[in-house]
Structure formats: structure tokens, C-alpha cells
Amino acid sequence: MTDLGTARATATGLRVSTQRLVHIYRSEGHEVAALSGVDLEVGAGEMVGLLGPSGAGKSTLLSLLAGVFRPSAGKVFVGPVELSAARDRQLDELRALEVSLMLQGAGRNLLPYFTPLENVRFAQGVARQSGKDLPEPEEVLAGVGLVAEAERPLSELSPGHLQLAALAVAMAPRPGLLLADEPTSQLEHRARDLVLERMAALNRELGTTVVLVTHDPDVAAFLPRTITIRDGRVGGEGRSGEEYAVVTPDGFLPLPLHVRDELLPGTLVRFHLLEDGSYTLLREEGGTDA
Ligand SMILES: Nc1ncnc2c1ncn2[C@@H]1O[C@H](COP(=O)(O)OP(=O)(O)OP(=O)(O)O)[C@@H](O)[C@H]1O
Question: Fewer Cβ in 10 A, N or C end of the chain?
């Protein structure tokens, strides 16, 4: 029995954490630092959104959490497994049994010549062979609300139903962690809300940890917690619509963008403790409140 098998017995959702995660893409003649020290903590069974501008490193982070490739430096824990140190076999097993990655665009997650039912059955193959206790494909499809569409050709499905089929495929091996790259980006509002609600219901009912990338403010507002990636690092967190700056484990505090425009490099600031235990930030030049 592997470490993952033990984890499954105690919890459905997997805890995810990263420590000073760095990823550098190397191509001929140049290097791109996509992630430059990400410290992240997502509890077992949480549903969180990754936000941030284009090129911030969100998809890279998702791929590292999925064990698609290994980080240049730092650590990634998915459940009890530290991915950067895991053997290839352990990573294969993790991807087949415990971590599902939904790529952007429903079609990239589905075999086009299979029905939704056949897609789900196919997606369960390895996990079933390994002895994992899985629901029948019909039940998986019912879980995302695709019953009448189960045996229809994909070409007859609406974009929303295709995305629900992709969600069913991702959930077919009953993973402990669902990673989704922009799962609602190509959908109109009704279909978007339906996909999001079904995802939230699976998170609630099965306890699966969900991490999804989004650019959509409405999706972000729906999620209990969001993490903003900026310049390859955690730039802030949102809780129920409120934005917070997050102190890093080594004591750094990334300034929110609108404040960064005010506080130029080299500005001296002071933290002033108030009677109620909160702090104000004082800018030293002229002593103006920041
Ligand atoms: N295979 C690659 N080779 C070289 N550079 C890459 C590769 N993939 C991504 N990058 C670069 O790494 C940085 C982070 O890219 P990433 O796709 O992770 O960002 P993102 O936040 O997901 O962006 P988007 O929202 O546009 O998808 C960018 O500068 C990007 O150009």
C-alpha cells in the first residue's frame, strides 16, 4: 500500500501546500521565471480560486500541483506526498488516482468519438484496475446533472454540457484534488453558473479539494477564498469579497497594487500599533498616513 492509499482511508480531500516554489522555463538562449517563491496552503476539502493577471504563473502552479512537471526549486505537498522528491511511479499513481487536472477548454479533456458515458468509463480504467472503489459511470454523470446526455454524441452537446462532461471525466476516478484551469471561461452566464454550482456541490458532498483558475470577477465572488498570484508569487488573498495582503513565511508583505503605485521603492514606512490591537501604516516622508 502506498502513502496515498493511507491518506484515502482518513480523508477524501487532499491538503495542498507549497514552500518557496520556484519554476523556471528554459528554452534556447533564455530563461523565464514563471514562479519565484510561492508559499501556499489549501486545506483538505477547501474550494479556492487562483486569480491574477495573464502571465502571473497560475497555469504553471496548477501544472506543478498536478505533478505534470517538477519545480525548479521548493516543495509541493499533495496530501502526504512531496512531489519534487517523489519517484516517477508515485507521480503516475497520484495523477491516475488522486489528482485530476481539467485543462482549459472542455474538448481537451474529452475523447471526441466517445459519448460522455464512454468517456467517464475510460477515465476510470486505471483507478478501477488498481482496486479503487468507484461509483458506476452513470452515477458519476448523474452527479454533474448529465443524465439525458449520457449516451449522446459530444457533437450534439451544448458548451455547458460539454464542460459538465469534462467535469464528470475529471471526477470519475474520485480524486482527492481537482485542479481546473479556467473551467468557465468559454461559457455564457447561465452555463457558467451551472458548472460552478455543480463543482461546488461535488466539493461539498465528496469533500474533494478544488483549486480553480479564473479571470472572472463573478466566479471569484462566488468562491469563499481566492489567492491572487502576481509576478510569480502570492500577491494577496480574498475572503468573501474582501482583499487582504498576506505576510509570507519569511516576513515579507506584498503591497496591494493600488498602494504600490503610491509607495515607491525606497519609501520608509512605520507600523503603528493602535489600542485595539490593529496597525496603521505611516509613511515617514512628511509623516503622511499611507
Ligand atoms: N512552456 C513555456 N516555455 C517558456 N515560458 C513559458 C512556458 N509556459 C509559460 N511560460 C511563461 O511563464 C510565465 C507564466 O505563465 P503561465 O501560463 O503560468 O501564466 P498564467 O498566469 O497562467 O497566464 P494566463 O492567465 O495568460 O494563462 C509567462 O511569462 C509565460 O510566458
Answer: N
